[in-house]
Each structure stands twice: as structure tokens, then as C-alpha cells.
């Protein structure tokens, strides 16, 4: 339990709760849920430019990371087709993957196919079911993809000024504006309460909020004097109590709750908002292909990690279809911006390619 681990090392309840957020990021779990300690480990095990457990902002926004990978691939001779949806994986008579068929009917033939779509999309939508073992299909259907995350992107016309550390008169960014700001994290009991509400189908009345202002470090993201604020919030259930839909009313009601919370810490925040984009779990699934809205393509619980990710006997990136590989967050070692699944899958695919 992360609570027990943090109790051994720290005394301050706000510090413990703030660190405990890394144990529940993207997980429908509370700091009191057994196994959530692994999620905490997963988020601090890496390093950035020699700093262990550090995170960073990508200059130009997260899309710039995809662009950098794309440029590196193109420099090696890769051809990239954007906005070309895949209809299904093309199989030969021998059952091997031979390429993909795009939704417009175009066939793209290849000796190997790597998919960084989720296991659910890869095997339940893009692959003929009769070609897959029944127990494998059942396992993929049973993967826990519950997600508590609603992401809210906000445009503001002035920098938030927090009661705990008010802005200077010239309005220049202060050190705390340059890092993650955790709100509603005065104690781990608050995180647990927020989680409990969501398990009953209700968006948290006092949600856990991780607030970042990337434009402070990367001014090109917003016009002068304005900023973009990224809100990573929990907990919101994928399905609301009574089967109610996440319609415009429900979306805005939850966003208003989040903004009311921020206003209590930073008076004037609501008046500074000039635009907002609310992405609930169903939105994240529809727009980005994330099953259940889960940012990791499936929960990071101990029964869905290591040799069991995405399914027992298939954690080595190879799938039941020869020449079809899984290289996204649904494969070992799971989610996070680290590229480990892709790198490992590429090495396995290259090994097989040399044999071909």
C-alpha cells in the first residue's frame, strides 16, 4: 500500500497525499487500494536527463514528441501516412500478417505489422476473430480498462495567483508556476473520498487536480500575457450512476466543480478563463482510441503487468498471429512516456525479420 510506504518516510500529510497521487494516476484506485503502490513505483522508476524520477515538459506540447519520432523514422526512410485509418490486418493463407487494409480499401503490404493501438482495438476490431485462440480473445475482453480521468485544457488571459503564494505586481511566473501543482491533496483521506464517490457512479465533488501551466516554460503555446493550463483530474466514472450519459450538461457540471475548487485556491481564476476543452473518459476513448478512456490501454494492476500484459504467454510482443506485434502501452511494461514497449517490440520484430 502506498499509504504505508509513505508513512515510513514522511510525516507531513499534504506531502504524503501529493506523492500518493502518483500511485493513482490514471488508475481507478485509491491510495488505500492494495497493489496501487506499484503504480507509484512505475511513475518514479525512470529518469530525465540524469535526474531520477523526474518529469519534464515537451517543448511545443506533447505532439512535438510524436513529431520528433516521426522525423527520426523518416530520416531512416520510413513513409508515414497520416489521417489514414486502418480497417483491418491483412492475413495470408498461412495465417501470417501480410500488411493492413486501410478504411478506403487501399492495401499496404508488409512482412511485419506492429500495432501501437490498444490490445482491444488490435485484436477485437482489426483482426479476424476466427484466427485467434478463444481463451486469448476472452482475456483481451476481460482486461480492466476502467479510467477515472477527465482532462480539461484551459486558456486563460492571466497567470493564476494562489493565496498560498500570490503573484508579484509585474505578474511574472514564480517557481511554483513551473511545476505540477496539486490541489485537493491536503490528505490521503481526500483522495480516498474522491475515489469512493466515483465507484458509486458520481464524479468526485472534491476531485484530485494536477494543474500544470506549460506556457510558463514554453511561451510559444499562448499569446503574450495569456497561458494554457492543463488540468489532469480524478475521479470521474466512465459510466455515470443510473446509466446517465456524459452529455454537455454533465461535462460542464463537473468542469464547474473543478473550477470552483481552483477558485478557492486561486481567486480570480474563473474570471480569467477564455476557453475550455473537457475530455471525459468516453471522450478520451472516442477521440484517442483509449479503451474505457484509460491512458495506459488497461489498468496497471498487478494482475495485468509483466508476464500477464496483455495476456499470459503473450507478454513478449508477439501475438497469436505470426508477424503481428503489439508495441503500445497495452504491452509490457505498460503506460507512461518512456517508449520502452516500442523499443522492446522493435527488437523482437527485428529478430524475427532476420529469420524471415
UniProtKB/TrEMBL annotation:
<dbReference type="InterPro" id="IPR036188">
    <property type="entry name" value="FAD/NAD-bd_sf"/>
</dbReference>
<protein>
    <submittedName>
        <fullName>PYRD2 protein</fullName>
    </submittedName>
</protein>
<comment type="similarity">
    <text>Belongs to the carotenoid/retinoid oxidoreductase family.</text>
</comment>
